[in-house]
Every structure is written in structure tokens, then in C-alpha cells.
Amino acid sequence: MPDPGRMAVQGRGLQSEPARIKPNEASLLARHNPLIRRKRIMANVYGTNNADYLDMIKYGVSNDYVQGYDGNDTILGWSGNDTLDGWNGNDVLYGESGNDLLLGYYGTDTLYGGSGNDQLYGESGYDKLYGGEGDDTLSGGDTFDDLYGGMGKDQMTGGAGADWFFFETKDSGDIYAGQADTITDFKDEDQIWLKGSYSYAGSTSAPADGQYSIWQKDGNYVVTWNAANDTGFHDLIVKGDNPMGDISFY
């Protein structure tokens, strides 16, 4: 049995690893082993100064707080509405299911929201943010970042630096149905990337197949694209500078 104030935490290789428990809260602090697992507990989990792999195993349904601390960490939230905090280092965070909060903080981080209505904040450094399914909020933070909203009605803020916003064919919905994505702070140095190849159709709100347009509604710019052999239009609300000349294809 572990000493009072300690508990055994299952790690890689079926080993046990001591962890400190803070009074009055279910907190785990990994001391050496890079993998911490728990089942059906609410936990605060902290990594080490090394490159940690923190996996809040999929069988649990708790709302967890996980901090990677220093090092280049990989953190998986799985189920529940989790808060994943990469802190220092170049981290990779996976929210998976639930409405998660992902914080990259310092370093070059990659954040995957997964399913659910997630909030992704890159903060400092060049970050890549993938909202996934659901109505997500993405914020790049300092310097230049890449933002992928994914399916759902997403709100994206690039922040400082020349940011790139990526959209698959069906990532954004109809503005008249209230399903369009929004870029909140578009600057002339930013870039919008549309999946596929489109010709410019002018300021119409209904471009033909294989075309895109830029028009205005309610004081904002709207980018509309119509993929070939697709049904319906896909609209993007752009607040800020005119995106004319800042749209590319991939």
C-alpha cells in the first residue's frame, strides 16, 4: 500500500508510480512516469519538466484539468468537459468529446478540439488550431497562426501576426440559416484558404458552381463559395478589412 498522502497511479509497462494528493481536492502530480490514467474520478493532473504523455483514459466521464507544465507534451482529454493546458513547450492537445477548453500558452502548439463546442486558444508562438465538429471558438493569440474551424458554426480570431484561415468544402453554412462561420478580426496581412479551385464571381451572393464571391451584409464582408456538384452555398462572415486579394486555394 502507498504511504499516507500518496496513491499508486497506473503508468506505462503496468508499473505503479507515486503521486501527491493535495488536501481537499482530487489532484494528481506525476513525478516521473509520463502516462497517467484514471477511471471515473475528477482530477487535476500536472505533468513534469520532461516531455509528458497524459492520457485521461476514455472510460472516464469527468471534467478534468490537465497541465503539461514544461517539456513538449501530448495531452488527451477524452470524454467530459476538460481543460487542457499545455503551458511551456511545443505541445499537442486533443480535447476529443465534450465541450473542452484547450490552452496552448508558450511554444509552437497544435490543438484539436474534437467533437463538442470547444474553445481553443493558441496564445504565444506559431500555433495550429483545429476546431473539429461542433460550434467552436478559436483564437490564435500572438504571432502568426493557422486556424481550421471544421464542421459547425465557428468563431475565429487570428490575433496578432499574419494568420491563415482554412476551410474545407462544407466547413461553413448558410448565412441566412444562421450557420455561417465568422472571422472576427481579419487584417490585410491575413489569408483565407478555400479547399478546391474557384473563379471569382464578383459581388453576387449566389455564385455559380465552381465560383466564389465577396459581398457585404450588415456592415460586414461575406465570402461565399459554391463547390462544383455541391448543393447550397457556403458563407463566411469577415469582420475587419476587405478580404479581396487575400483568398487562396489548396
From TrEMBL:
The keyword Secreted applies. InterPro entries: Hemolysin-typ_Ca-bd_CS, Hemolysn_Ca-bd, RTX_toxin/Mannuronan_C5-epim, Serralysin-like_metalloprot_C. The keyword Secreted applies. SUPFAM superfamilies: beta-Roll (SSF51120). It comes from the Bacteria. Its main location: secreted. GO terms for molecular function: calcium ion binding. It is found in: Secreted. Keywords: Secreted. GO terms for cellular component: extracellular region. This is Calcium-binding protein. It comes from Azospirillum brasilense.
